[in-house]
Design brief:
By secondary structure, the protein is mainly β. It has one domain: ATP Synthase, domain 1 (Sandwich). 14% of the residues lie in helices and 54% in strands. 21% of the residues are buried.
């Protein structure tokens, strides 16, 4: 289970997976890989519901940048909040982990 809080100002991001993992950081910008392409959402973004593709989810909070591999899912942007329901979530903590996530992405895409 992943539980994490950050203190830099921003909007709330909630990420939930079927495994029960919950990630609730604050963020100034979130990059999402949707089935229609890569998007960035910030506080004040227009309301949106979208389908996520397998890819990277990047949470920016001030100077901090956290990278995750999301195994597809859904995202909904509402005033003051981004909700993500991800089929799977893996954190990339360094360059090696990021490469592992990217390799895992290729495996997931190859498996359909």
């Amino acid at each position: 289970m992943v539980n994490q809080r950050k203190s830099v100002g921003g909007w709330n991001v909630e990420i939930v997976t079927p495994d029960g993992e919950h990630l609730k950081p604050e963020a100034s910008l979130v990059e999402l890989c949707t089935v229609d392409g890569q998007i960035g959402v910030m506080p004040g973004h227009e309301q949106l519901a979208t389908v996520l593709d397998v890819g990277e989810l990047v949470i920016h909070n001030g100077q901090q940048r956290d990278v995750y591999l999301v195994g597809g899912g859904f995202a909904r942007v509402q005033p003051g909040r981004l909700s993500v329901l991800a089929f799977s979530l893996e954190r990339a903590t360094n360059g090696e982990a990021l490469e592992k996530c990217r390799s895992r992405r290729q495996e997931l895409l190859g498996d359909g």
